[in-house]
């Protein structure tokens, strides 16, 4: 296992017009056993409320926070992630969404499960609508897997012993999500990051990691470690999903490990 306690970590948080959730997530980051070396907010064009929140929080927090912003001309999360990754100063990237509350050991667990030649996929605990509203009104960290409002509470069990037994190394496409994933920045650059051709919700994360696996960077799936709690929300618009599935299928069928329009766009200027 590859584990350097001194290795620097950039935590990237994607967000779009949900400042109340983002504030709650940032509070959970402040409570980490191992703080990230920097927090980069990958903002896909949020309004002024998010900017004001980030500036206010940054002025009071011990966290180093970078606001990576792009113009709002539609759902462009692949490009937003690339922009944020290009700003990262650390060798290791941990990526979450802006509605994911972190267990206090989240960053530490990802650090000690890092391994050269692998990206690490975590899982999430889903919160009910009611529990989400309660947390947003009065933030209180979730401390036990038996608490109310957890819909798949098995994922909330934190156990190093169980994690060693049930975590697996297998290159499956199923279950790949960027709401809880970690990888070396150099590996990301080696496949040219996310594909900026993806617009609208869906499959940009799967396509990115298919290219990683085609490149020889394998998948490790964590269980019972690196726990996060997903705040409830309505489903995103899936109007462009068919087009995105076509891009994914092209990468799979042609065994691609590179995209032409990716993170290189942020290093060429």
Helix count? Answer: 9
First-last Cα distance: 37 Å
Shape: globular
Provide the residue-averaged pLDDT: 94
Structural class: alpha/beta
CATH superfamily: Spore Coat Polysaccharide Biosynthesis Protein SpsA, Chain A
What is the total number of structural domains?
1
Uncertain runs: none
Strand content: 15-25%
User: What is the CATH first-level class name?
Assistant: Alpha Beta
Beta-strand segment tally: 11
Secondary structure: helix percent: 25-40%
Main sheet specs: 8 strands, mixed
Radius of gyration: 17 Å
Question: How are the elements arranged and paired?
Answer:
Layout: E1 9-15, H1 19-30, E2 38-43, H2 48-60, E3 65-69, H3 77-87, E4 92-97, E5 100-102, H4 106-112, E6 118-121, E7 125-126, H5 129-137, H6 160-166, E8 168-169, E9 180-184, H7 185-190, H8 204-214, E10 218-221, E11 228-230, H9 241-253
Parallel strand pairs: 1-2, 1-4, 2-3, 6-10, 7-11
Antiparallel strand pairs: 4-9, 5-11, 6-9, 8-10
Helix pairs in contact: 1-2, 8-9
Summed up, what is this model?
The protein is α/β, with parallel strands linked by helices and 269 residues long. The protein is built from nine helices and eleven strands. It has helices at residues 19-30, 48-60, 77-87, 106-112, 129-137, 160-166, 185-190, 204-214, 241-253; strands at residues 9-15, 38-43, 65-69, 92-97, 100-102, 118-121, 125-126, 168-169, 180-184, 218-221, 228-230.
